[in-house]
Amino acid sequence: EVQLVESGGGLVQTGGSLRLSCAASGFTLDRSAIAWFRQAPGKERNFVVITSPNDGDTYYEDFASGRFTVSRDNADNTLSLQMNSLKPDDTAVYYCAAGPRLGFHNSDYDYWGQGTQVTVSS
């Protein structure tokens, strides 16, 4: 069974940090494009960062550049999102995703995690 299982969300104060993790099973991440998306209340789900297989190309949305860092551990078949200097506007449900090719849209990814809530208090 193909699964992505996320962990690491929670409540943090402005300026704090969180590290989200996503464990894959049923397929190997090293051959997949991977991504993190987020969905704030009342808004669409949009990409935060995407990275191609073998991490050759990585793109961060403007709000994430310089504060967020994506990484993958092929040995553990996991991907992570380190988030620093968090702001209340970062409050959202965060999703990991994987697929055969790099893309900026939800439809580009075949596999999705269940989502993890990140809440940043002011």
Question: Features of this protein?
Answer:
single chain; 122 residues; seven-stranded mixed β-sheet; four-stranded antiparallel β-sheet; 0% helix; 51% strand; globular
Characterise the protein shown here.
With 122 residues, this protein is mainly beta. Helices cover 0% and strands 51% of the residues. Strands 2, 4, 5, 6, 9, 10 and 11 form a seven-stranded mixed sheet that branches. A four-stranded antiparallel sheet has the order 1-3-8-7, with no helix packed on it. The chain is globular and about 40 Å long. The mean pLDDT is 95.
Summarize the structure.
With 122 residues, the protein is mainly β.
Give me the secondary-structure topology.
Elements: E1 3-7, E2 10-13, E3 18-25, E4 33-39, E5 45-51, E6 58-60, E7 68-73, E8 78-83, E9 92-99, E10 111-112, E11 116-121
Parallel strand pairs: 2-11
Antiparallel strand pairs: 1-3, 3-8, 4-5, 4-9, 5-6, 7-8, 9-10, 9-11
